[in-house]
Design brief:
There is one protein chain. The protein is mostly beta strands. It has no helices and nine strands. It has a single domain, classed as OMPT-like (Lipocalin, Beta Barrel). Strands 1-2-3-4-5-6-7-8-9 form a nine-stranded antiparallel sheet, with no helix packed on it. The model has no long low-confidence stretch (mean pLDDT 95).
Length: 252
C-alpha cells in the first residue's frame, strides 16, 4: 500500500489578476485567403497560492497559502486561413489553423499554515516559490464576422487545440535539500480550447473601437522531476485565463 496519496501534492494558483497590452495585424485577400496574428504581454499583479499535500487515502497532512507578489505573462499567435463564405455586405465565415505560444511567470511570497493549524508562518517579503510555465500549441478552428450595420460588426473565433506541449519550472527557494533552482521541472502534452469574441463600432471611416471577451484553457499530463531525479507522474497541469478586451483597430 503506498504511503503517499495520489495525487500527493496539489498546487492551485487562483485569482491571478492581470493587465496586458497587445498588437494585432491581419491581411485579407479578395479570394478569401487571410493571415492574422497578435503579440502581447503584461503584468500579473495579484493572486494566491494554495499548496496541499496528502497521505494515502487522500488524508491531508499539510496545507499552506502564499501571496502572489510578482508575475508577468507573454503570448503570441500566428494563423492562416480561408473564408469559404463571404457576403456582399462584408460578413464572412472561415476556417484557420496556426500556432500559439503562452508563458506565465509567478512569484509566491510568504506562507500561512492551515494544516496543521498554528504552525509558524513566513513573512510576506520572503520569496517561497517561483513558477514559470510555457505552452507551445497547434490550433485550428472557425472564425466569423457579422456586419450588423454600416458601422457596427461582431467578430468571433473558436479554436480547438488538439496538441500542446507544456514545460514548467518550479523553483522552491527555501528547499535547500532540492538543490539549485529550478529544482522541480515538469513536462507534458495535452489539449485545450481558445475563444475570442468582440463587438466593434466605427468611430471614423477606417477606425473602430471594440469591446470583447477572451477565454483560454490548456491542460496537460506528463512527468515531474525532483532535483533532476527520475520521473514521477504528473496527473494534471492546467492553465486558464479569461477576461475583457478593449481594442482600437485601424484599417488601410
Amino acid at each position: 500500500m503506498p504511503f503517499f496519496g495520489n495525487p500527493t501534492s496539489v498546487l492551485v494558483y487562483d485569482h491571478l489578476y492581470a493587465h496586458s497590452v497587445e498588437a494585432y495585424a491581419a491581411k485579407r485577400w479578395r479570394q478569401g485567403l487571410f493571415v492574422a496574428g497578435n503579440i502581447g504581454g503584461g503584468n500579473i499583479y495579484s493572486g494566491a497560492l494554495n499548496d496541499s499535500d496528502y497521505f494515502a487515502g487522500q488524508t491531508k497532512f499539510s496545507e499552506t497559502t502564499s501571496s502572489i507578489t510578482d508575475g508577468d505573462l507573454a503570448y503570441l499567435t500566428a494563423d492562416g486561413g480561408y473564408n469559404f463564405l463571404q457576403s456582399a455586405g462584408g460578413s464572412t465565415l472561415g476556417a484557420f489553423g496556426g500556432f500559439h505560444y503562452w508563458n506565465e511567470r509567478l512569484v509566491a511570497s510568504g506562507l500561512s499554515s492551515i494544516v496543521p493549524a498554528g504552525d509558524p508562518g513566513i513573512p510576506n517579503n520572503v520569496r517561497v516559490i517561483t513558477n514559470n510555465v510555457k505552452w507551445h500549441s497547434l490550433r485550428a478552428g472557425l472564425n466569423a464576422r457579422a456586419q450588423v450595420t454600416d458601422k457596427a460588426l461582431v467578430t468571433a473565433s473558436f479554436a480547438v487545440v488538439p496538441r500542446t506541449w507544456m514545460k514548467n519550472d518550479d523553483s522552491h527557494h527555501l528547499r535547500g535539500d532540492l538543490g539549485r533552482t529550478p529544482n522541480i521541472t515538469m513536462d507534458g502534452t495535452g489539449h485545450g480550447v481558445q475563444l475570442d469574441a468582440e463587438a466593434r463600432y466605427a468611430v471614423y471611416k477606417r477606425a473602430e473601437l471594440g469591446l470583447g471577451l477572451r477565454y483560454w484553457r490548456l491542460r496537460a499530463s506528463g512527468d515531474i522531476h525532483f532535483a533532476g531525479g527520475s520521473a514521477l507522474p504528473l496527473n494534471e497541469f492546467e492553465s486558464k485565463r479569461y477576461g475583457v478586451t478593449l481594442s482600437f483597430t485601424s484599417r488601410w
